[in-house]
Design a protein that fits this description.
Elements (H helix, E strand, L loop, with lengths): L1 H24 L5 H13 L3 H14 L1 H4 L5 H20 L6 H24 L6 H13 L3 H19 L5 H21 L4 H9 L2
Helix pairs in contact: 1-5, 1-6, 2-3, 2-8, 3-5, 3-7, 6-9, 7-8
Length: 202
Amino acid sequence: MTRRLAQLLLGLYLYGAAMALMVRSGLGLDPWDVFHQGLAGRVGLSIGLLVNIVGALVLLLWIPLRQKPGIGTIANVLVIGTSMDLTMLLLPEVAGLPARVAALVVAIGINGLAGAMYIGAGLGPGPRDGLMTGIARRTGWSIRLVRTGIELTVLASGWLLGGTVGVGTVLYAFAIGPIVQAFLPALTVRDTATQETSAVNP
């Protein structure tokens, strides 16, 4: 459990830091952050604070879906946006296209690593992931269909609100899944009992 908690918190912190770096690149954000950024520009709150607020509101949608949050779910709501705001305070604006492209690529790589860390900790999905799986379970629709529908909705809403859509949005969509998948096997924490059983019964 100690390793799980440490991996969870580090993963969530890095996730928020990567999101901040994507904002600084100015080349486009992932769909949810396009929404968060657009909303931040309209209501006058920081983007990180809105990441946390929207996460908490999405969590309320779990109630009719009968989803149960875990430690990781609550930590997700509290840590990612806070990390994002702290990192934004420390990161200067990135000048010049080569530096912005480099920032974008590094951000997506860190985001994939961070995602694998908190998923691999196995302490509960984030609010947005839980919404996706909950809707899929209740409706019988595929995960792919539900995820695509949700992300297109928040992307369009965020763009209309003034969020940044660009090459980074497209690159993130294509790259994040393979990056998470590449890191996940090494970062999945298995129960000791399961490991011992596997050792006895290979």
